């Protein structure tokens, strides 16, 4: 028997601990599949270490991941950067992706390759862990705003996380001489690109259909490994696919949030069963082992310890209901605490690290059914009649057996009882109501029991209703255009929505914020223009909330604050212009008011999109004055136009006279043309023609005489 035991032990160690056979100068293929977590990181890091120990030519990481935990991703990248052999990142097969954390990992490899019909990107980090603190509002600086990159974070903590991720991926891009601008866009804007576009943008180095094609394209490439340069040779290499061993499988199983959730529940219920039935042993041992394994899994998972505490509180309350019945109050409170804790247990928005809702519903329903079954047993036990003690004698009849002075003996249930009665009893062996002092006590106890039933009816039922109302009030639904600002014990926690929101009663409060554009009418304002003209002006502004946190925390009522600010700004801006500018330059005034409001409301998380001045109303006297001014202006313009026409006509006549004076024949022709025009009209004008030569002679004689 001992020999067989030792033989089986050696065989077990040989099966699980034997080292695989490696080929010299082989190419190692290591899978990076599924969500990047502790198990994936452990498998890749240990595989890379083994490949270096076996003097492999290089390692190819076969990447197909939707992303994962930041800590696991950085552990893998550190191993790649510290590797003594080249590491090739290959997004494969077709249809795979290297999203989120996979993008960082691909940027860290010495050569990045992709298969056709694959994609990478969407590397915006998702915050997990502790809630962020409220941020200090930043004022807009129009001079430097264009020089700063736009961040998608709405809070100081989110901006820190995004800026850290941008710096991290830019460092990897600069190290591997890849496109850092696109990497920044992948983090800040969450963009993704397919394989062909990634190659044209300089994000990856190779697009290969399969591993064989990849090795062929890698042949002869020069890689900088530290300070040295290495030329890859893939002509005579063997391919070794590093398998996932039992340790990685085990880590992958226990670090699954659903499995860890089951383990902690099995452990807690096992300990409860062991405590209620001491000496059995097996439930306690299984419970301790499951709790230890679950705690290890929680150590590497993004666990909300508030959720874990609520789960344990719920189990304790449901257990207390079984041992100390409270007519459902403890049980319903325990179910509510258990359900809330299970939902918020994983403090992350990554789908791969969420507990399945059917699993939560199943365990909650199981606990509720167990509670209902226990309460049913308790109710039936209370309705059964008492068969022991003095209580079951209440209301019974007895026969007087013996009267001896002040002592009276009666027969009840075949026994003789000594009683005392306020009224004298007759020894007639007739049946009488048993009304001794004991029965007075029994009657009092029966009355007390009836009072207890009334207390259950009038106090227990309202507690149950209150618990149900409290449970229903935990669930809130936010529409697509709504967000909820959550406060935890008065401090800002996070912004949630849209969809189903679960709040912890008394600990969390939510304020709804509408993100749709608000159309606000600015009441009519009395404005005195720069030229001392009193007018009435009203306008309409269009704005919306872009940062719900600031809109709730930084200002008491952002709608009222925006309305009041728009009124004062409208008066201030229009008061700096003359009346003519108000009437003629509305577009510029709209732009000025919009710019000032947008800058002032930025600290409140509000974006003013547009401002439109609707009406500029004048009083009657000013309207008449403007009409007279307009009429005078029209008369002035008419006279100016007439004078301008006379002036231009005189200039033309002068030019014509100068031309005619240069040629006497031209003047003669003009003279004859005038005679023709006069002769054609029906007029009584008499014209005496005079030769031009005669006029010329007379002119010369006059010149000589002078």
Which runs of at least 5 residues are low in confidence (pLDDT < 50)?
1-8, 10-24, 128-151, 429-459
Q: How would a crystallographer describe the biggest sheet?
A: 6 strands, parallel
Mean pLDDT equals: 75
Strand content: 15-25%
Structure summary, number of beta strands: 23
| Rg result | 48 Å
Shape: flat
**Class of secondary structure makeup:** alpha/beta
Oligomeric assembly:
single chain
* Alpha-carbon distance between the two ends: 166 Å
Strands ordered across the widest β-sheet: 8-5-3-2-1-11
Number of helices: 22
Helix percent reads 40-55%
Task: List its salient traits.
flat; 706 residues; 22 helices; six-stranded parallel β-sheet; alpha/beta
Summarize the structure.
The chain is an alpha/beta fold.
Describe it for me?
The protein is an alpha/beta fold. 51% of the residues lie in helices and 19% in strands. The protein has a six-stranded parallel beta sheet with strand order 8-5-3-2-1-11, sandwiched between helices. A four-stranded antiparallel beta sheet has the order 14-13-12-15, with no helix packed on it. Helix 3 links the parallel strand 2 (58-64) and strand 3 (87-91).
């Amino acid at each position: 028997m001992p020999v067989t035991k030792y033989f089986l032990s050696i065989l077990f160690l040989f099966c699980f601990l034997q080292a695989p056979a490696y080929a010299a100068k082989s190419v190692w293929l290591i899978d990076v599949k599924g969500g990047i977590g502790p198990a994936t990181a452990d498998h890749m890091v240990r595989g890379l270490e083994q490949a270096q120990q076996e003097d492999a030519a290089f390692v190819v990481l076969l990447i197909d991941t939707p992303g994962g935990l930041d800590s696991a991703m950085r552990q893998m990248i550190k191993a790649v950067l510290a590797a003594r052999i080249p590491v090739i990142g290959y997004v494969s097969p077709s249809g795979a992706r290297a999203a989120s954390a996979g993008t960082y990992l691909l940027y860290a490899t010495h050569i990045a390759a992709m298969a056709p019909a694959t994609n990478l990107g969407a590397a915006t980090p998702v915050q997990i862990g502790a809630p962020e603190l409220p941020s200090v509002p930043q004022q807009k600086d129009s001079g430097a705003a264009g020089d700063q990159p736009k961040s998608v974070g709405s809070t100081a903590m989110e901006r820190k996380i995004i800026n850290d991720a941008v710096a991290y991926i830019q460092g990897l891009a600069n190290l591997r001489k890849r496109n850092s601008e696109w990497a920044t866009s992948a983090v800040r804007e969450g963009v993704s690109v397919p394989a062909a576009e990634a190659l044209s943008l300089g994000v990856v180095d190779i697009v290969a259909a399969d591993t064989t094609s990849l090795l062929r394209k890698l042949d002869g490439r020069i890689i900088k490994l530290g300070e040295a340069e290495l030329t890859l040779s893939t002509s005579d290499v063997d391919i070794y696919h590093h398998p996932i061993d039992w340790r990685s499988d085990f880590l992958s199983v226990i670090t699954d949030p659903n499995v860890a959730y089951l383990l902690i529940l099995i452990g807690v219920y096992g300990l409860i069963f062991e405590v209620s039935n001491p000496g059995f042993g097996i439930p306690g041992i299984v419970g301790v082992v499951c709790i230890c394994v679950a705690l290890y899994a929680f150590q590497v998972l993004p666990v909300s310890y508030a959720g874990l505490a609520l789960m344990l509180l719920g189990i304790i309350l449901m257990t207390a209901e079984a041992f100390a019945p409270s007519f459902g109050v403890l049980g319903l409170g325990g179910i509510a605490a258990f359900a809330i804790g299970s939902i918020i247990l994983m403090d992350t928005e990554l789908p791969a690290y969420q507990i399945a809702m059917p699993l939560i519903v199943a365990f909650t329903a199981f606990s509720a059914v167990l509670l209902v079954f226990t309460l049913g047993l308790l109710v039936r036990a209370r309705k059964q009649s008492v068969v022991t003690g003095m209580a079951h004698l209440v209301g019974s009849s007895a026969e007087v057996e013996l009267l001896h002075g002040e002592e009276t003996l009666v027969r009840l249930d075949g026994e003789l009882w000594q009683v005392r009665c306020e009224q004298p009893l007759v020894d007639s062996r007739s049946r009488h109501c048993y009304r001794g002092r004991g029965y007075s006590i029994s009657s009092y106890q029966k009355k007390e029991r009836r009072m207890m039933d009334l207390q259950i009816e009038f106090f227990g039922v309202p507690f149950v209703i209150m618990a149900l109302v409290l449970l229903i009030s935990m669930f809130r639904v936010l529409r697509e255009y709504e967000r909820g600002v959550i406060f935890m014990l008065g401090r800002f926690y996070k912004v949630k929505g849209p969809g189903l929101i679960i709040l912890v009663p008394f600990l969390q409060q939510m304020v709804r914020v509408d993100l749709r554009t608000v159309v606000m009418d600015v009441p009519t304002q009395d404005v005195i223009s720069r030229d001392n003209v009193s007018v009435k002006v009203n306008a309409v502004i269009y704005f919306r909330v872009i940062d719900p946190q600031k809109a709730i925390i930084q200002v008491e009522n952002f709608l009222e604050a925006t309305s009041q600010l728009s009124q004062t700004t409208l008066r201030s801006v229009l008061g700096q212009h003359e009346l003519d500018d108000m009437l003629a330059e509305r577009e510029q005034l709209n732009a000025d008011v919009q710019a000032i409001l947008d800058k002032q409301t930025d600290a409140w998380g509000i974006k003013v999109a547009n401002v439109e001045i609707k009406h500029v109303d004048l009083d009657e006297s000013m309207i008449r004055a403007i009409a007279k001014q307009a009429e005078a202006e029209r008369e002035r313009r008419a006279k100016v136009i007439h004078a301008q026409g006379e002036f231009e006509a005189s200039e033309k006549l002068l030019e014509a006279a100068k031309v005619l004076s240069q040629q006497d024949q031209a003047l003669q022709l003009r003279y004859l043309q005038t005679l023709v025009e006069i002769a054609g009209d029906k007029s009584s004008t008499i014209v005496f023609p005079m030769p031009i030569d005669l006029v010329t002679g007379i002119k010369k004689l006059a010149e000589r005489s002078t």
